[in-house]
Amino acid sequence: MKISLIKAGKRFNRDWIFRNVTYEFTAGNAYAITGPNGSGKSTLLQVIGGALMMSEGVLDYQVNGQVGNNSNAAGPAKVGKSDPDLLFRHIAIAAPYLEVIEEMSVTEFLHFHTSFKPFLPAISIEEAIRVVGLEKAAHKQIRFYSSGMRQRVKLAQAIFSDVPCILLDEPCTNLDAEGIALYQQLIRDYCSDRLVIVSSNDLQEYGFCNETISILDYKQTKPVG
């Protein structure tokens, strides 16, 4: 998978959050988006994932194989902002602002999730729950989980999804030292051949990334006239 941003910009009201972002993200690499709190890291990540529309510029996704067309011919296909459902199929995200369904158990929630975004072929729901250390609470409603346990659920539904791109926004939120070690192991075991983009200021969350993007490089101080 390849994601390209070309002169991408996002503003709220008259203030630019970022502008003139031109960058290419390719599979097999990991990228960190860094910057101070409130600087727009999460906004850029959501733009990359198609969850937020840009104010200007181009967002282009390329996925090998048959994606978004009716042709039987194999080859690269382009998916743009005109079809966000197709973007959604190829991206999984874990973020503090994305909620889980508290009335479900983790087993029920992951079954629900895999009904529209299947897991990696070698990973069953039971195995996913075991790997993230939630087997003893597999049938307990998520509303009774600690914040750290909920974060493990979010990581499981994102990292085990059979998609070429994983977006992670502050992925170690609410995790203790054991949870952080688990996160780092999940990255090593399941993400080496995928496109991973992490929004974070914490080296424990993005230390594995081979490229770093500072949101401050794309700030514009003057508001829109």
Summed up:
This protein has 225 residues and is of the alpha/beta class. It has seven helices and nine strands, in the order E-E-E-H-E-E-H-E-H-H-H-E-H-E-H-E.
What characteristics describe this protein?
globular; Rossmann fold; alpha/beta; four-stranded antiparallel sheet; five-stranded parallel sheet; 7 helices; 225 residues
Task: Indicate the topology.
Elements: E1 2-12, E2 15-26, E3 30-34, H1 41-48, E4 56-64, E5 76-79, H2 84-89, E6 91-94, H3 106-114, H4 125-131, H5 147-159, E7 165-169, H6 177-190, E8 195-199, H7 203-206, E9 211-214
Give the spatial strand order of the biggest sheet: 6-7-8-3-9
What string gives the helices and strands in order? Answer: EEEHEEHEHHHEHEHE
What is the typical, i.e. mean, pLDDT? 89
Query: What would you say the CATH architecture is?
Result: 3-Layer(aba) Sandwich
Number of strands: 9
Derived from helix and strand composition plus strand pairing, the structural class reads: alpha/beta
Give me the CATH superfamily: P-loop containing nucleotide triphosphate hydrolases
- Give Rg in angstroms: 18 Å
The end-to-end span amounts to 37 Å
Low-confidence stretches: 65-82
Fraction of residues in helix: 25-40%
How would a crystallographer describe the biggest sheet? 5 strands, parallel
Query: How many structural units, i.e. domains?
Result: 1
| Beta-strand residue fraction | 25-35%
Shape descriptor reads globular
At the fold tier of CATH, the topology name is Rossmann fold
